[in-house]
Amino acid sequence: MSENTHIHYRTCNLCEAMCGLEITYRNGEILSIKGDKEDPFSKGYICPKAVALQDVYCDPDRLRKPVRKTNNGWEEISWKNAFDLVESGLKDIQKKYGNDAIAIYQGNPSVHSIGMMLFSSTFFKALRTKNRFSATSVDQLPHHFASQFMFGHSFLLPVPDINRTQYFLVLGANPIASNGSIMSAAGMPEKINLLQARGGKMIVVDPRYTETALKADRHIFIKPGTDVFFLAAILHVFFNNGLTKQGHFPKWITGEEKLKGIFDRFSPERVAKITGIPAQTITTTAFEFSAASSAVCYGRIGVSTQQHGTLCQWLINLINIVTGNFDRPGGAMFSNPAIDVIKYSAPKGTMDKYNRWQSRVRRYPEFGGQLPVAALAEECLTPGDGQIKALVTSAGNPVLSTPNGRQLEMALTSLDFMVSIDIYINETTRFADIILPPTTGLETEHYDLAFHAIAVHNTAKYSPPLFAPSNGARHDWQIYKELTRRMKKHRTFVEKISDPFITPSRMLNHGLKKGLYNLNLRKLKKYPHGIDLGPLKPVFPESLYTPDKMLHLVPEIFVNGLRKISLDPTGNTNGSLSLIGRRHLRSNNSWMHNSLRLVKGPNRCTLMINPLDAEIRNICSGDPVTVTSANGEVVLPADVTEQLMPGVVSIPHGWGHNRSGIRLKTAKLHPGVSINDLTDHLFVDNISGNAAFSGVKVHVILAD
Ligand code: SF4
After folding, report:
1. Distance in angstroms (rounded) separating the CA atoms of residues 296 and 448
2. At what angle do helices 309-322 and 227-240 cross, to 10 degrees?
3. Which of 194, 292, 448, 575 shows a CA-CA span of 20 to 30 A to 259?
4. Residues 551 and 603 grouped into a single domain
5. How far, in Å, is the centroid of ligand 1 from the Cα of 50?
């Protein structure tokens, strides 16, 4: 290695998997990005997306200075000018229409940045608006609902103890492509190999024969949107055959008596026609699950983004609990992170807030201070008191990622003022008046506050910045601090004097010192690969946040929801097909599509369709097809494949860069189409209001 060549170790913050990276660089230029074999969490694993860190850092399309929209296009302006314009724009709206006229949307990358995690909420509080939205209600609100009502805190999220389980039942998730979601698990392929090598089994239930299904011991096709019936039928088999630990639950579990009879009507025979799964397969799965020495049921996006998403997450928890596979090795467990974000977000005994206010048009209940994003567009478009007139987006692209994106585009054109904190002029931020670009990835320090808390193994790791920010660039936390300073009405004396000293590092240090392991930042920095803090350990009943310190098996809101479910088969679909999304290993969200290395090769934005459905429509692979829903129409190439269940079609999410006015090279290369031009903002999870993307009815024909 030459004198000027150095190695930098850090955690990849592009997705939830927290892979350790070994980056070789010379004179500010990256020579290679490899997996860090000494990282105790990822042990050398990385996926092809890791190179995107370099691509985003070097990307000429990335904004490095604030820009303002003018009649002649975008104009670079100074930070001072940008902050002045944002302050006056937002204050004008507040004065004219009130605080709720400003809405906020926080995108998924926010949770991957320590700056945004620690500093954005004070700014949002300073705005004093009830119109707060985020990517949480795109695909994960049901998890939070289930956790809040059962365990007392929405962030107490169980994760499969994949490293020790003997039976892994997976629904609506593709961890081989994602490396876990609400289950940070870098290196899933090897974890599944090890599970099978120790005699364990993985069963995948999915309308698509996914990359994960390919490695499974059994794959079961299920009709989109019917997981609730499958899960209820599994519980039916448990209770009707004495396969539960009933009568032997720990003392901190309450509600056992309420379980009586609630699954009686969901017999495998009745559910078979609805789900498309033979009764015998359901029964076998239930018996296998209960007989395994340890087992865990896990359901993710495909399960959460449906009409009964919250009920699904509740039933998944029940399956794990009633079989004794909860909070114990090999089952569903909770991590023991070095910084306990839950402890900081709510004192014990104070359950998260729910339904303190509702959205104006459809009356969706607030949850944890947020409203479902499916309501955002209508709140902008519907005139009347409380109408949204301005929007602040933070690291988000809701035009591509939320249901009925075309309606949201219309809504954004109707706004009086819009600010985006973002590194790109993309499908959403092109509507902004001002864009404030933060530093990104390699220029920032990093600690995974959120993902250590949902990891399958306990570790801690701090990553220093690799490169200094370019001249005058600001970190996201500096942007938020300045915005808070300008928008906050009253500041306490303590806030005023301590403000310059509050930095992410200081807050991290504080969190580590207060944590379980007697750590501090200085100590952590001595371990550039991270520290191994051991396997997951049981946490209950001590970690229960319910006021009565009990785990509630049967919250009223869920059992009422279950009672309302009709067991009628879906009936006549008039030749329509059920649309589901998908994710590829080389893609995560829309913003990663600007890495040429990741998008090169064959077009991956295709309509996957089963040969039976293709044949009756005279469709062959490669043919352009028109897909129509109640809300829109897209044209894309067909991919005829038996990987899709008959009656189901699939389009990957995050594409659709064929809009005007965006400054992304992929707009020309591989624009693809947006699945959310077809999805429906009115189709939501009945309980949480989470968008229901799975099972949207579409018609498919050969394009003209
Ligand atoms: S799976 Fe890929 S994108 Fe995700 S953290 Fe690992 S290297 Fe990064």
Report:
1. 25
2. 30
3. 292
4. no
5. 6
How far is ligand 1, taken at its centre, from the CA of residue 45, in Å? 8
Say how many Å lie between the CA of residue 584 and the centre of ligand 1: 12
Residue 572 domain flag: no
pLDDT at 339: 95
Lowest mean pLDDT among 401-405, 556-560, 617-621, 664-668: 664-668
User: Ligand 1 atom 4: the closest Cα is on which residue?
Assistant: 15
CB 434 within 8 A of CB 323: no
Largest CA distance in the chain: 73
Instruction: Note whether residue 28 is domain-resident.
Output: yes
Q: What percent of the chain has pLDDT over 90?
A: 83
User: What is the whole-number distance in angstroms between the Cα of residue 47 and the centre of ligand 1?
Assistant: 5
| Alpha helices, H only, 152-226 | 175-178, 188-197, 211-215
CA distance 542 to 540: 5
Instruction: Tell whether 599 and 694 lie within a shared domain.
Output: yes
Indicate whether 159 and 308 sit together in one domain: yes
Question: Do residue 181 and residue 40 come from a single domain?
Answer: no
Question: What value does the mean pLDDT of the chain take?
Answer: 93
319 is a domain residue? yes
What is the tens place of the pLDDT at every residue in 423-433?
Answer: 999 999 999 99
**232 vs 297: CA distance, rounded Å:** 13
Spatial CB neighbours of 71, under 8 Å, sequence gap ≥ 6: none
Measure 591 CA to ligand 1 centroid, in angstroms: 15
Cα–Cα distance, 230 to 221 (Å, whole number): 11
pLDDT of residue 572: 47
Atom of ligand 1 nearest to the CA of 42: 6
At 49, give phi and psi (nearest 5°). Answer: -70, -20
Where does ligand 1 bind, in terms of residues with CB under 6 Å? 12, 14-15, 17-19, 46-47, 49-50, 179, 186
Question: Which CATH number characterizes residue 25's domain?
Answer: 3.30.200.210
Nearest to 94 by CA among 520, 390, 336: 390
| Domain range for 636 | 577-702
Backbone angles phi, psi at 249, to 5 degrees: -70, 150
* Nearest atom, ligand 1, residue 21 CA: 7
What is the number of the ligand 1 atom nearest to the C-alpha of 46? 7
Separation of CA 272 and ligand 1 centre (Å): 38
**Low-confidence winner among 103-107, 205-209, 574-578 (lowest mean pLDDT):** 574-578
My answer on whether omega of the bond before 347 falls inside 30° of 0, hence cis, is no
Which residue has the CA at smallest separation from atom 6 of ligand 1? Answer: 19
Q: According to the model, what pLDDT value does residue 499 have? A: 72
Q: Is the dihedral of CA 372, 377, 382, 386 positive or negative?
A: positive
| Ligand 1 atom at minimum distance from 17 CA | 5
Identify the burial level of 218 via C-beta atoms within 10 angstroms of its C-beta, where 0-12 means exposed, 13-18 middle and 19 or more buried. middle
Which ligand 1 atom is nearest residue 15's CA? 4
**Distance (Å) from CA 193 to ligand 1 centroid:** 19
Instruction: Specify which of 114-118, 138-142, 454-458 reaches the highest per-range mean pLDDT.
Output: 454-458
Q: pLDDT, tens digit, for every residue of 4-34?
A: 899 999 999 999 999 999 999 998 899 999 9
Tokens for 287?
């018996």
Question: Number of folded domains in the chain?
Answer: 3
Q: Give pTM, 2 decimals.
A: 0.93
